[in-house]
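Memo to structure team: turn this sequence into structure tokens by end of day. - J.P.
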Amino acid sequence: MSNDKSQIQEKLASWAKETVNVYNPIADTLNKESSNEKWGYYTQTPLSLVSQSPDLLILGINPGSGGGKDNMTGEELLKGNPCFEGLNKEGVVKVMREVRDDNKKRNGWALWHRLNDMLEKSPNNKNLLKYFENFVLSNMIFFGTDHENEIPKIDKEKCAKQTLKLIDYLEPKVVILLGKQSRDLYNRITDKGKLEVLVPNSIYHCMYDKSHILAIKHTAYHYSYDEIVVVGKTIGFVLDHHEEAINKETIFSSYIKNDIIRFEEGQKTKQSKKKLKVNSAKVIKLLTSNPCFQLTMVKKDHYYLSENLVIRITNADNGYLAIRHKNYDVQYPNSKYVFTEEYRNFLNTEKQGWKCDNYWLAKKHINDFGNDENEIVKNIISELNDIIEFVR
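Reply from structure team:
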């Protein structure tokens, strides 16, 4: 799987020219049909800087924010995400790997940090993402949206087939598909074998010519520590043995065996916890009457968490706790609230079980805080205190 720089850039230039001929008409149609939104598209890490076949090609379903151009040339497409404009290889990686500054503001890319956390569990691949030459980040679809369920109604399969051609030209050792949408879309368009379970409840695998395809949960999903270990070591194992056949038997007979057993036992425990019946109404009463944790009511079920944030605690939908800006309905829908990504990155990386959607900055079911009412109240107070400290 080797390509010298001139050969690979020649192939990528050809791919980019063909790809803009697919995307430009789609973008033009979207913009003609949209009265209040400008649709553009882009890839991620700059393909114009690629000089060799990467170890990893990482593919999400689509970019996580808008931007890009709607009428591109192939040369412009190869420049990648506008946030990398003008940067060299080291600069691109630096942007992605930055950590919190002195004001606790999260910089960098949560996706990069999560994958790096995983690969640090692989003995031979701990530093893989620290060097540009080792990886390429792109998407199955190049139109950016804040949430994957906002992808416009387009011919997704036609767009994604261009990404398969990118695999053809890059010839990576391993392709990582992030999230169920990426996995399902890949299965719909590939003619080289469908993904099959490699590690139950976690990883799928198949071959694409000489490249291994691994499909995992999206990095925004809450991973337990055991699953981080299993996924990281599995990616590393496949990289180390990329010229060999890989299946469930080879993985389970490898040095990852005990890690997989530990992860599967954790999954069984998790399922048994789900069967526990917790009285969410009792939890809410215990929490709102706790003398050590004062909550000021805004309206029914809603309380101030900080100067600008409000939490909702309700027994609707089996009971949940959710956070958003106090002026959400009037001024700050999630897509416009300046600290949305900062808070979500904090909860995704520092806490467990929080989910994001179109209505809430973060949401977590009451059952996910513990095994009984008293433990749940204790853990809710602990996590809310941590969030209060973070937003100060």
